[in-house]
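A quick aside before the break. I want you to see a complete sequence-to-structure record at least once, exactly as it would be stored in a machine-readable document. Don't worry about memorizing anything.
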Amino acid sequence: MMNFYVSGRFSFNAVPQDWREHLTQLLGSRPRRIGTWAELGLYGALRCMADAGESILPPDALLMLTSRHGTYMPGNAALVQMQEDLPMPVTFLQTQPSQLLALLAARLDWRGSAYFFADATLQELLRLASAQAGDGGVLLGCVDELAGGSTHWLRLRHGVAQRDIFHSNQLLDEASGWGIPGAH
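That is the input. The structure line, written in tokens, reads:
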């Protein structure tokens, strides 16, 4: 496995009350037509990138996202709406995890390979990242809306840095609170 260093991180399991205000400040305006799941992901990824001192993602970087429950809440709302008619268009869009990937690509001025993995283990994501990531590394996230909401992100770069040098097993320890299967 290739070595990565953590150039940025952001994580919370319990959503602070003012997180949406912080997201609005990061974006410069309140996001529209996206659900809580996508908002949590956008907020976490932007905070992680800020921690890494980056505002754009290099074109050869990977964007990898996982979730244990995915877009369960909007999916459930769409199923309820389907009992009477077709789901509302905004509700349907909120069921698509790729919506978050597109939002991040636009915000980070990035065009590259983005992946959503349902219920993937962190070890699986790291194995894939180490095989596919270019010199730009990877922005890796896990987002869940259930149980109060959580968003966990790591900005990983190839090589060696003065701080936070990790091998894959150490990254598993680093992400132990993520709620990702396979993280210790």
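Two observations worth writing down. Residues 180-184 have pLDDT under 50 and may be disordered. The first helix runs from residue 19 to 27. We'll return to this after the break.
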